[in-house]
């Protein structure tokens, strides 16, 4: 098990959802927090809450903006010290009917869900390599392990899983750990948050109630945060929030093995 007291964590999408759950779990363990999000009011609320527990700095950040990402990391490290824990958590849950896909929808989804993760890795990995220590945690999804019909979302989440697994193998000898979160249903507001983008990738109105009910029936953000931090401390490369994906993974694995000559 690992102890991160007095460490510094940098969390994208940290003002809400799983990111906030992770921040709360880390705060209780004495970790200083650099919270970033695009939602300034939520960022202020979460910052005020967490300042009662640990040292916190908040920064409005769009993870698509590479220059801003580097500037915010520099500012956070000047205020809090070297970042040892990176959580690339910001993301959206886009949806498009297959006959309504467009380059604009692909560009938006890839930019936030995949390039946003790449920007976090590329900004902080060189610093971690120099220090020969660190832990990178990327948020994917159960949809990054078993494909569903939501092509936009599934594509980016499979990519995040592959990036994380490959990066883990590449940096192991440098004293850096990498984990990927593949949650099942978690009680977040990601559907509403994605819809607020007004970018043509909101879930269809007739599907929203059922999907939101499924999310609300799942793990709470605080339970998810504790699961993530406990799994990290145990050195687990894959982090889940329940057994929801198990039968689907078993079916996919069996099908893959059966496909081999």
UniProtKB/TrEMBL annotation:
UniProt family annotation: Belongs to the short-chain dehydrogenases/reductases (SDR) family.
Recorded superkingdom: Bacteria
Protein name per its UniProtKB record: Short-chain dehydrogenase/reductase
Keyword set, alphabetical order: Oxidoreductase
Keyword hit for Nucleotide-binding: no
PROSITE patterns: ADH_SHORT
Recorded GO MF terms: oxidoreductase activity
SUPFAM superfamilies referenced in this protein's UniProt entry, alphabetically: NAD(P)-binding Rossmann-fold domains
Residues in Ketoreductase domain copies: 7-189
Organism of derivation: Saccharothrix espanaensis (strain ATCC 51144 / DSM 44229 / JCM 9112 / NBRC 15066 / NRRL 15764)
The UniProt record lists the keyword Oxidoreductase: yes
Sequence intervals crossing the membrane: none
SMART domains reported for this sequence: PKS_KR
A GO CC term attached to the entry: membrane
InterPro entries: KR_dom, NAD(P)-bd_dom_sf, Sc_DH/Rdtase_CS, SDR_fam
Pfam families referenced in this protein's UniProt entry, alphabetically: adh_short (PF00106)
């Amino acid at each position: 098990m690992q102890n991160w007291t007095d460490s510094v964590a940098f969390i994208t999408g940290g003002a809400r959802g799983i990111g906030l759950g992770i921040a709360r779990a880390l705060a209780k363990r004495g970790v200083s927090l650099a919270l970033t999000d695009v939602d300034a009011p939520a960022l202020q609320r979460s910052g005020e809450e967490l300042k009662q527990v640990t040292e916190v700095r908040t920064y409005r950040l769009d993870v698509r903006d590479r220059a801003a990402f580097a500037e915010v990391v520099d500012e956070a490290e000047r205020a809090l010290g070297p970042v040892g824990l990176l959580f690339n958590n910001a993301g959206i849950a886009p949806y498009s009917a297959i006959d309504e896909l467009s380059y604009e929808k692909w560009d938006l989804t890839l930019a936030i869900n995949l390039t946003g993760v790449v920007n976090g890795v590329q900004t902080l990995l060189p610093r971690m390599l120099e220090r020969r220590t660190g832990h990178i945690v990327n948020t994917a999804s159960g949809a990054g392990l078993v494909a569903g019909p939501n092509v936009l979302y599934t594509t980016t989440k499979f990519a995040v899983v592959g990036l994380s697994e490959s990066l883990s193998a590449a940096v192991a000898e440098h004293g850096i750990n990498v984990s990927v979160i593949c949650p099942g249903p978690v009680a977040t507001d990601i559907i509403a948050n994605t819809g607020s983008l007004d970018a043509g990738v909101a879930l269809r109105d007739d599907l929203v109630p059922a999907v939101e009910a499924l999310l609300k029936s799942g793990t709470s953000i605080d339970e998810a945060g504790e699961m993530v931090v406990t799994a990290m401390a145990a050195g687990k490369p894959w982090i889940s929030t329940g057994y929801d994906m198990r039968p689907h993974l078993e079916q996919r694995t069996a099908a893959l093995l059966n496909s081999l000559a």
